[in-house]
Amino acid sequence: MRKLQSVLMVLAILCFAVPAFAEGGTTIDLAPIGIGLGIALAAGLCGLGQGKAIASATESVARNPGATASIQLLLILGLAFIESLTLFTFATIFIKIK
Predict the structure, then answer these.
(1) For residue range 49-64, what is the model confidence (pLDDT) as tens digits?
(2) How large is the C-alpha radius of gyration of the chain?
(3) Once rounded to an integer, what is the mean pLDDT over residues 6-32?
(4) DSSP 8-state symbol, 13
(5) What span, in angstroms and rounded, lies between the C-alpha atoms of 60 and 58?
(6) CA–CA gap between residue 76 and residue 83 (Å, rounded)
(7) Could you write out the three-class secondary structure of 22-88?
(8) pTM of the full predicted structure?
(9) Tell me, what's the pLDDT at 22?
(10) Where are the chain's structural domains?
């Protein structure tokens, strides 16, 4: 966790230092970096959420095989909600950048 914090701090410092070293009043478009970070965060956290949901559903089916149908229905509904949040994030990022 400490290493991740250090890497993110260095990236933040580099992003803010880039315009300071620009010469001649040229501006650097940082939008692609923002898009990349936003999509990476959305996709990564979506993957973690889906993994946790599937692991919990698998464990609950293993404990109670009789409830497989209701667990499967709730799992698919939950995965659809997780994916929709990711798609909303992608759409928001592209709308804000354009």
Answers:
(1) 999 999 999 999 999 9
(2) 20
(3) 73
(4) H
(5) 5
(6) 11
(7) CCCCCCCCCHHHHHHHHHHHHHHHHHHHHHHHHHHHHHHHHHCHHHHHHHHHHHHHHHHHHHHHHHH
(8) 0.63
(9) 61
(10) 30-97
Nearest Cα to 75, choosing from 92, 62, 88, 58? 58
CA angle 83, 88, 91 (to 5 degrees): 125
Spell out the long-range contacts of 90-97 with Cβ–Cβ below 8 A and sequence spacing 24 or more. Answer: 90/39, 90/42, 93/34, 93/35, 93/38, 93/39, 93/42, 94/35, 97/31, 97/34, 97/35
In one-letter notation, the amino acid at residue 44 is G
% of the chain residues with pLDDT over 70: 86
Instruction: Give the CATH fold of the 30-97 domain.
Output: F1FO ATP Synthase (1.20.20)
C-beta separation of 28 from 22 below 8 A: yes
